TrEMBL record:
InterPro entries: aa-tRNA-synth_I_CS, aa-tRNA-synth_Ic, Rossmann-like_a/b/a_fold, S4_RNA-bd, S4_RNA-bd_sf, Tyr-tRNA-ligase, Tyr-tRNA-ligase_bac-type, Tyr-tRNA-ligase_bac_2. The gene is tyrS. This is Tyrosine--tRNA ligase. It is found in: Cytoplasm. Keywords: Aminoacyl-tRNA synthetase, ATP-binding, Cytoplasm, Ligase, Nucleotide-binding, Protein biosynthesis, RNA-binding. It comes from Azohydromonas caseinilytica. It comes from the Bacteria. Its EC number is 6.1.1.1. Belongs to the class-I aminoacyl-tRNA synthetase family. TyrS type 2 subfamily. GO terms for cellular component: cytosol. The lineage of its organism: Bacteria, Pseudomonadati, Pseudomonadota, Betaproteobacteria, Burkholderiales. Pfam families: S4, tRNA-synt_1b. GO terms for molecular function: ATP binding; RNA binding; tyrosine-tRNA ligase activity.
Length: 417
């Protein structure tokens, strides 16, 4: 099958009134965003939508490169939900076809494509998790294999003819790799083309993405114009740094907070971010008004303990993905841990070999990676048995049940036979 046949041509421009409702919708759009391009075109689209009652089509595409969605993904999902609440049609696009190419964005090497089996496994959980942010009843779910597979070789060549190599090389990561002599595979040029073609197929009015997706989003605008459609506007959102405060949140970097993580783990991870990074998390993740956040920040700058604000953030996010009761319980669990208390949900371990040395016991209970690490933790006063600090590295425990603790967060209830 060849390319999609264009069935619409942009009509002559009509000037619709920019009402207070349109200005309010623009403010919602702009909150926390990095760029809105072109802003005046988006204002015109909003005005037209309000005057005609026709919702705008707003697209977000995610490649299922991992089975779980983390808080970094929810930066754009939150924005999508805000626009959804304004009455517009949200399209959650799962890039099951583009995942087989591999997104080169921000890469200095070729990204290995996923297998079909990996993609299908990951895609199964994507929308279920995204539904924790979006309203499922008002979300259109699409897979880009629907039109990409149908293109075939002829259609792919015709699509490639609509974009030049010179424009492709304007992309920073391609230009830098070319200058450094790092290989660029031809198939990598197809990724932004296929992502842009998604916008043609869906007749998108606005596409969202992280700042690293700006080039791909602009390709969508260019291709829509090539196909005689009104070009989409693009909205880029900042990339959220992970727990390390340096790299963007990523499961591969281990600095992420998954939205399906247990409430206690989510709460504790949020409390571990720095006092400085906390405000970016507030701006990009909190549903509090900008005025509320500014007032809270002023209180902290005036001397209020920043931990108070961080607890508020952690409880809000944890409640969103679990419940208010779960957030309260997670806060209490964190307090218990910080005071040396015992959490409610600790692993139960059954071991044999009593009497057993404390080092071997900690290792077999998976509380330390090695007996030497156990000895080091004992030296630092980081090991407790039933709440009492262990100072004797030669301690042997007889048969019985004990609560073992290593550091502030690792616990196990061990029954030794």
């Amino acid at each position: 099958m060849s390319e999609i046949v264009t069935t619409t041509t942009p009509a002559a421009p009509v000037n619709y009134p920019v009402t207070d409702e349109v200005r309010a919708a623009l403010a919602v759009t702009l909150r926390g965003c990095e760029e809105l391009l072109p802003e005046q075109e988006w204002v015109a689209k909003l005005a037209r939508s309000q005057a005609t009652g026709v919702p705008l089509r707003i697209k977000l595409g995610l490649d299922p490169t991992a089975p779980d969605i983390h808080l970094g993904h929810t930066v754009v999902l939150n924005k999508l939900r805000q626009l959804q609440d304004l009455g517009h049609q949200v399209i959650f696009l799962i890039g099951d076809f583009t995942s087989t190419i591999g997104d080169p964005s921000g890469r200095n090497t070729t990204r290995p494509p996923l297998t079909r089996e990996q993609i299908e496994t990951n895609a199964q959980t994507y929308y279920k998790q995204a539904s924790l942010v979006l309203d499922p009843a008002r979300t259109e779910i699409r897979y880009n294999s629907e039109w990409c597979d149908a293109l075939g070789a002829r259609g792919m060549i015709q699509l490639a003819a609509r974009y030049t190599v010179a424009r492709m090389m304007e992309r920073n990561d391609f230009a830098e790799r070319f200058k450094a002599g790092t290989p660029i595979s031809v198939h990598e040029f197809l990724y932004p083309l296929m992502q842009g073609y998604d916008s043609v197929a869906l007749k998108s009015d606005l596409e969202l993405g992280g700042t690293d997706q700006k080039f791909n989003l602009l390709v969508g605008r260019a291709l829509q114009a090539e196909y005689g459609q009104e070009p989409q506007c693009i909205l880029t959102m900042p990339l959220l740094e992970g727990l390390d405060g340096v790299e963007k949140m990523s499961k591969s970097k281990g600095n992420y907070i998954g939205i399906s993580e247990p409430a206690n783990a989510m709460f504790a991870k949020l409390l571990s971010i720095s006092d400085t990074l906390m405000w970016k998390y507030f701006n990009l993740l909190s549903f509090r008004s900008e005025a509320e956040i500014a007032a809270l920040k002023a209180e902290v700058e005036a001397g209020r303990n920043p931990k108070d604000a961080k607890v508020m953030l952690a409880k809000e996010i944890t409640a969103r993905f679990h419940s208010a009761a779960a957030a309260d319980a997670a806060e209490q669990d964190f307090i218990n841990r910080s005071r040396g208390g015992i959490p409610d949900d600790i692993p139960e371990v059954n071991l044999s070999g009593a009497p057993l040395g404390i080092g071997a016991l900690l290792k077999q209970a998976n509380l330390v990676p090695s007996t030497s690490e156990a000895m080091r933790m004992i030296e630092q006063g980081g090991v407790r048995v039933d709440g009492s600090v262990v100072t004797d590295k030669g301690l042997k425990l007889e048969a019985g049940t004990y609560v073992l603790q290593v550091g502030k967060r690792k616990f196990a209830r061990v029954t030794l036979g």
